[in-house]
Amino acid sequence: MKQATRHLRLPFEFDLAALQADLQSLLPDQWVPHYNAQAGDGYWHCQALRSSQGRGDDILAFSNNQFLDTPLLARCPYFQQVLQRFKCETCSVRLMALAPGGVISEHTDAGTNFEDGVARLHIPIITDPDVLFWLDDEPVHFAVGGTWYMNANCRHRVENRSAVHRIHLVLDCIPNQWLADIFNAAGFIANPEPKYGDPSITDANVLEIIAELRHRGTAAALHLAGRLAAVRHGQ
Fold first, then answer.
1. CB of 228 within 8 A of CB of 213?
2. So where are the chain's domains?
3. Does position 231 have pLDDT exceeding 60, yes or no?
4. Which residues pair with 156 in a beta bridge?
5. For residues 85 and 76, what is the distance between their CA atoms, to the nearest angstrom?
6. How many CA atoms lie within 13 A of 180 on its CB side?
7. Which of 137, 173, 210, 227 could form a disulfide with 119 if both were Cys (CB 3.0 to 4.6 A apart)?
8. What global pTM score does this model have?
9. Which percentage of the chain shows pLDDT scores above 70?
10. How would you classify residue 77: left for phi > 0, otherwise alpha for psi between -120 and 50, otherwise beta?
11. Strands (E), 147-192
């Protein structure tokens, strides 16, 4: 079985000079420290281009409120063109900067993968080959001139061993059929669905769980036990 996709280059390329020109139009005092300060060692800051209720100082990736364009995005005509290329809903859109020598320690961002309904895309604007992401201990460099999907639900960390501030434009997209077609054409391999519908149930413990459900004796428990037994026997 092929390994599920941790990262993937997508067929979107953008004008690097235009990206960097929009970056220069932003105000340097608008950078906001990343909220996960415990995971960062060094300057790890963001600017919000789409955020909860359109607030320029809100860099949270998730919210129950509607995501709207911020005043910062209005200053950036080329960033607006970039977002228009994606024919799917975008939630959080941020510029994310990591200073020379900066390290983002290993962590996971639960639910930030295509299979769970969030495709996190990186568009490098300023980077260097010595900027490495480590995804489940696999090193990868997201090069300029490309658009990269990263499964942030896996273990990941970042090291900037270069002399430049690494700055990426990061989009959280909601997958639809348009985006699914692009991912599939690029070679995306999804994580397989759990055999028993629950990742905590495996061949090693399913008999014990079936026995416990049958012991309970309720209609719901017996029904679930029957379903698990049928899956185990390949029905």
1. yes
2. 7-185, 193-235
3. yes
4. 107, 135
5. 15
6. 7
7. 173
8. 0.81
9. 92
10. alpha
11. 147-150, 156-160, 166-173
